[in-house]
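Researcher: Let's try something more involved. This one mixes different molecule types, so please make sure each is placed in the same coordinate frame as the others.
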Amino acid sequence: MEIKTGFTGLLHSRKFHYSLVAVAFVAVLPLFVRSEYVLGHVFTVMLIFAIYASSWNLLAYSGQGSLGHAAFLGIGGFASALLAVRTGLPPIVGLLLGSFFSAGIGFLIGLACVRLKAWFLAMVTFGFSVIAVTVVSQFDAFFGGMIGFPTPTIVPQVLPFYYATLAIATLSIGVIFLVMKSKLGLAFKAIRENELEAKMIGINTGKYRLIAFVISTFFAGLAGGLYAESILFIQISIFEPYYSFLPLIMAVIGGLGTMEGPVIGSIIIVSIDSFLPLTDKYLSPLGSIFPGVSNVGPPFRLIGLGIFLILVVIFIPKGISSLLHKVYDYLREDTSKAKKIEKA
Amino acid sequence: MITPSGLAETLLWGIANGCIYILLATGLNIIFGVMKLVNFAHGQLLMVGAFVAYEVTKIAGLNPYLSIFVAMGSVALIGIGLEMFAFRRVRGTEKLNEIFISLGLIYVFENVAALFWERNYNIRIPSPLAGLSLSLGEVTIGYDQTLTMLIMIMILVGLVLLTKKTKIGLAMRATSQKSDTAMLMGININKVYILTFALGAALAGAAGALYGILFPFNPTIGALPTIKAFAIIILGGLGSIPGAVIGGLLYGIAENTAVYLLGGIWQDAVAFALLIGVLVIRPTGIFGEKGD
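Model: All components are placed in one shared frame. Result:
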């Protein structure tokens, strides 16, 4: 078997084939799932957060863990929504411009961050998300974020928007994957493993870290714009730390530094968020133990999520996707063994 | 109206707030210095400390200032549990794993607290000195604030004595310099780590009890103090206690001045802008020698 490299190699790789199958599967899902709620608020949101988590994942791939990515989600969301509402631009142009605006701000923040070490960077990004929320609430007359406002969508909800999101998500995750596999991604990886050594072999670490920042914030902004459109509404709550931690949790649970990890993480977390509230009524007997808590469901869910995250980090540090790889390898080994036995 | 006496008062109250941050930052700094561990859930320990002090004051009728010790002890126990069952498991792996674990802990702590204390939203530990203030000419400062400063100084003096004058402190300093060599010299690293984490957590517990006396609190207050404590460490330099003190005072003053001059909503933003500014000019902090 010849070894294929570069772009053609990618086209022949197993990963590419499985991705095609996955996209095709998502594309035919609406045939089986008729519920508008599930399509519009679960599957679409899964796709959007898959972009968002992938954008965070790319930044982490270059060794930079952001704790304030919600700032870029929010900037992208507000910029694209405001552009579409105020200037009457078509929403798709607003979405693109909003993403570029987010990348522009990302460039400026990235400039401040390129020299910082892991936790310093985490601090600065978190600090920036706090500053962003303050600015948006201070100039409320301009942003209108306190009460929020409805956002126009690029295509009508639910089904057309679902397919538009699928196309954008496929493209975005594909681009992020190609970046990770390209020479650029190799530089990111070198910086993550050892910044000093990367510098010594001639990688301009500052430049590459900045590139990672800009690409990541572009897609975070894109996800923000899409998210605002998917819920038809944007409000200042999009800047909350919850949204900063979300892509991190998704990427870690799914598998850090892989293409499929953030997608798997997004599927798991959005499912938990959407379907577990249905079980809240079974928890109500516990309500008598905790008087004063009107619904014990949400805190229990979040405690579970926290414990789940800790257990994954301790016991499956490479994420759920590594488990899938193991299962796949195991099955393959089994079939190859079976073939050998047949031959014998 | 901006007056000189108003400004002086802002400064003084800022210093009092800074004291809480100093305690928190020092705890974080010890843990980082000895264990090279980054615990983003440190502020949640402060929150737990505040609630423990509140319950002890309410149920046992203890003086709030004595309840600080109970808060320190119980939060130290929690800290030991965290070190043994969570952070020890990822020691020596990638640095990001510690951040992920502490993020999981944030979710656990905040929501367990929400289950127990949701109905006590924005409570305060009832201090017998509440509302009383000391006046120095035109400037007044609350008795609670004054006591906070004194307690902070006492705790820090105790801490310095512990690290500089005792055998345990020697072991901690040795471990912080080079853990492998310390192990070869017969120091039980695991014990030192447990003790260090307990000590850092106890400081967070004390900070929590003081926080609960000065400010209203609820299960979600932990996040911002953590970040502020990190900011102080960055300002003051990693692993340096005097640096943390100066950083904490600067931070408390900057924050309070921002509230005085610009209004309450800018409190956090201005402080973070200051931090980002410092980091851009000096990526290793004002007093930091090296960033790692």
